[in-house]
Write a structure and sequence with these properties.
With 134 residues, the chain is α+β, with helices and mostly antiparallel strands. The protein is built from six helices and four strands; from the N terminus they run ααααβαββαβ. A four-stranded antiparallel beta sheet has the order 2-3-1-4, with helices on one face. β2 and β3 form a beta hairpin. α1 runs antiparallel to α4 and α2 crosses α3. It is elongated, with a radius of gyration of 19 Å. The two termini are 16 Å apart.
Length: 134
């Protein structure tokens, strides 16, 4: 998302905006002090682009953060509630009481739904769920 945002500024030949965004990436606080008033909207867009989740480009996702006490069956059932799964592998993390694994949904739309619903969710284990497109 950030690359697209930055390239759109390049296409406009807006050197001031490019410089402001570059400073924001290098030193967020300083950039906010210097440009927060005059470039508020631009900095808000830059932050949104920097913090946007990566796009889902395939029906296969890696995941981590589901509580280990759910077990493989519970984890699979949770993800299957969103749509059909063609492949699923799951294993406990060696350092924390969470599950890690890989799931392939039958279509990319279901993978997008899974990321939208679960990525970043706190399942009560002190870590947030992480779902990333492969």
């Amino acid at each position: 998302a950030f690359e697209e945002f930055y390239n759109s500024l390049k296409l406009k030949d807006d050197l001031n905006a490019l410089n402001v965004v570059a400073e924001y990436v290098m030193d967020k606080e300083l950039a906010l002090q210097r440009y927060g008033k005059d470039y508020k909207a631009l900095l808000r867009k830059a932050n949104a682009a920097l913090t946007a989740p990566p796009p889902v480009k395939s029906p296969t996702l890696t995941f981590s953060g589901f509580p280990a006490n759910m077990g493989e069956a519970g984890c699979k059932m949770t993800l299957e509630a969103l749509g059909g799964i063609s492949e699923f592998e799951c294993f406990p993390d060696e350092d924390m009481p969470i599950l890690r694994g890989k799931v392939t949904f039958e279509d990319i739309e279901t993978a997008k739904k899974a990321v939208a619903q679960y990525d970043g969710m706190d399942m009560g284990m002190g870590t947030k769920l992480e779902l990333v497109s492969v």
